[in-house]
Amino acid sequence: MINIIPAPDRHHAAPVAWLNSYFLFSFADYYDPQNVQFGPLRVFNDDTVQGQSGFPQHPHSEMEIVTLVLEGELYHEDTMGNKATIKQGDVQRMTAGTGLAHTEQNRTDKAVHLYQLWFLANQKGLAPSYEQMDLNFLDSKNELVPLVSGQKVLENVVYVNSNTTIYWCNLREDKTVTFRTFPIRNTFIYVKEGTLYLNGIDLGPNDQVRATDEHVLEIRASKDAQFILIDLPANEANY
User: Fold this and answer.
1) DSSP per residue over 158-176, as a string?
2) Among candidates 43, 24, 110, 28, which has minimal Cα distance to 74?
3) How many CB atoms lie within 10 A of CB 192?
4) β-pairing, 145-149 with 158-159?
5) Residues 234, 185: contact at Cβ < 8 Å?
6) How many CA atoms, within 13 angstroms, populate the side-chain half-sphere of residue 209?
7) For the whole model, what pTM was predicted?
8) What does 109-136 look like in DSSP terms, one character per residue?
9) CB within 10 Å: which end of the chain, N or C, has fewer?
10) Residue 183 and residue 234: Cα distance in Å, rounded?
């Protein structure tokens, strides 16, 4: 089954002047009991943070937090002692585990556009940890590029404590990629830009796909497109 959630159905939040967010799942003051998570994917926020602003220090626990910077750069500092700038094309993973706190600041004059995703970890009580890689994923062409995975057989990806793999794809017009999956897996797609034709369904910018019980997803760009695809376990026992 392929469930399409069109862009206008995202929850829009602008709680402060410097932050513009779209919540794809229940988060903060937005709560919909029918839209809490999709497999272990608990949060997907599409954020734009204006220059010389950002999130003050705040705590997290028992969550795998992945940040992809699409435009601009974001400064990160945490109670583990990490201090880093996450630049365009960088991927960061933070295991909150037993608890940590961090701050995220845009110290430049240019807005930063990022996706932040939270996953339920495959076990509780993990020691907090941090990983960041420059994967330059925004320059890839016509292929699904793995960025983050809990599958240790994949190389040059950021590791996550979840039975999950995050892919990025820049797909040229009329090009096609095929993603093969299993009924015990779920697939999540979020279109950044362009238009796609997925198993006979048209998708536009900021549309979502939540696919269950599918074997093959044929994805063709009807206009140059960028999208994220997440391969997720369907059953909690496999998180």
Assistant:
1) EE-SSS-EEEEEEE-TT-E
2) 110
3) 18
4) parallel
5) yes
6) 32
7) 0.97
8) SS-EEEEEEEE--SSSSPPPEEEEEE--
9) N
10) 8
Q: Measuring CA to CA, which residue among 47, 17, 43 is closest to residue 31?
A: 43
Given a contact cutoff of 8 angstroms between Cβ atoms, the answer to whether 207 and 219 are in contact is no
- Tell me phi and psi for residue 125, to 5 degrees: 80, 20
CA-CA distance, 26 to 152, in Å (whole number)?
30
Instruction: Please give the single-letter amino acid code of residue 55.
Output: F
Name the one residue in this structure whose structure tokens are 């890839």: 140
Long-range contact set of residues 135-140: C-beta below 8 Å, sequence gap at least 24: 135/89, 135/90, 135/91, 136/89, 137/68, 137/89, 137/91, 137/168, 138/70, 138/88, 138/89, 138/168, 138/170, 138/226, 139/89, 139/170, 140/168, 140/169, 140/170
Q: How far apart are CA 95 and CA 162, in angstroms?
A: 11
Residues counted in the chain: 239
Reported as a single tens digit per residue, the pLDDT across 193-231 is: 999 999 999 999 999 999 999 999 999 999 999 999 999
The encoded tokens of residue 234 equal 């369907």
Token pair in block for residue 57: 């220090």
> Which residue is it, tokens 């880093």?
84
What is the Cα–Cα distance from 44 to 71, expressed in whole angstroms?
17
The pLDDT tens digits for 48-68 are 999 999 999 999 999 999 999
